[in-house]
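WARN retry 2 of 3 for item q-0093 after timeout on previous attempt; input resubmitted unchanged.
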Amino acid sequence: MYWTDTSSCNLDRRFSGDIEDDERDGRLAAWLVREIRAGSADLVMGVFDQVDAAGHRYGFEDDGGYRDAIRRADVLVGGLLDAIGERVESGDETWLVVLTSDHGGHDVVFGLWGAHDDERIRDEAIPFVVATYGTDGLLQPLTSPVRHMDVHPTVLAFLGVAAGDVDGRVQGLGRGVPAKPLRETP
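OK item q-0093 returned
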């Protein structure tokens, strides 16, 4: 995957192995938790593929495979949030957590790998959940659909960095975030 990729679904270029490997998301989560707890990571990004794979295989309305994949991912994300909470408590740090997807799901044909890359059914709205740890800054409700282009300015706003002239806007963050420095540098 390259930062210059133009497709909004550039995560289709996967470098981390077989997406059919049911244990891959668990191994990634375990590695992320180790990095967070070790204090060696100030920024982490993980891509859990099993929910996406199940959505393509079963669709969003499935009572079996898709919901089971969401349940498994929820447990993995819970472990990450626990590790972040531990770091915030022990290190007086501030964290931003953004949970999103590589694409939306409105009017998407499922059961066909890559069907969401078809321009006729492209969905620019993505799921977007924002949480902060170690700050009293207020979060705001989302007032419009979120697109991938909104993730960048949202993260930069949390870091106190101007996003510049970008095609996106801050979503979910209120004024005053963060309420204290992210991390003191020696």
